[in-house]
Amino acid sequence: MGEAKRRQHDGAPSPHKRSSKPVVYVGLVIVAVAVVAALYYLTQPPTPESASLPEVSEDTPAFPAELDRFGISVGPEDAEVVVREFADYQCPACASFAEASQKLKAEYVDPGKVRFVFFDLPLRQHQHAVKAAMAARCAGDQDQYWAMHDRLFAEQTSWETSDNPGDRFSGYADEMGLNTRRFDRCMESELHLEAIEKSQEVAIQLQVASTPTVMVDNIPLNRPGWGQLSAVVERELQED
């Protein structure tokens, strides 16, 4: 029955239907607030007291410190906490973690609180990873290991697809003020290949298969990044 006919029939206007729009808007607002709150919670860095931080049982064996000689170390030998990373220079996730390792060196290693050990673990699917690891070690012969380490990760996307990444590495060495003839000889002779292979053997011995694998003392991180790394380091420093 139409509106006019309905009025004629009972003499009263038809009741207005209640709009559902305000209810929908309120629901959307609630959902939006919940999403924002969840994102805030998920993106907040954990605190050293956070129950979400990774832990190991008391009977978990300590990391075999004698194996550190196969990695590249920086920081005092008697540091309270040791952070170890197994990484591949051609691994994108390792390049992302490099910023966290730089912060670690600046905020904890340089003040003498932490020692950092970097293990080469070039993965089979990355054809230039071994050569990049050699570039870092050849630069290390001229006391520029960490500078080349950082440069390789920062420039990863420019050399990983190169037909001849060795030329790029030589260019980095030149820009860093290294003796390029000495650097190139080191690269051509594969001077540090055995050391890199020894580092890989450590990873195999410890059943480390993915990169980056990061450990604070004997505690493997499940979300390698500055938030979790710094929180676990702080917790370990407080417990020591």
Automatic annotation (TrEMBL):
One matching Pfam family: Thioredoxin_4
Keyword Oxidoreductase: yes
InterPro entries per UniProt: Thioredoxin-like_fold, Thioredoxin-like_sf, Thioredoxin_domain
Keyword set, alphabetical order: Disulfide bond, Membrane, Oxidoreductase, Redox-active center, Signal, Transmembrane, Transmembrane helix
Domain of life, per lineage: Bacteria
Transmembrane segments: 23-42
Domain Thioredoxin, first and last residues per copy: 47-188
Family: Belongs to the thioredoxin family. DsbA subfamily.
Protein name (Swiss-Prot/TrEMBL): Thioredoxin domain-containing protein
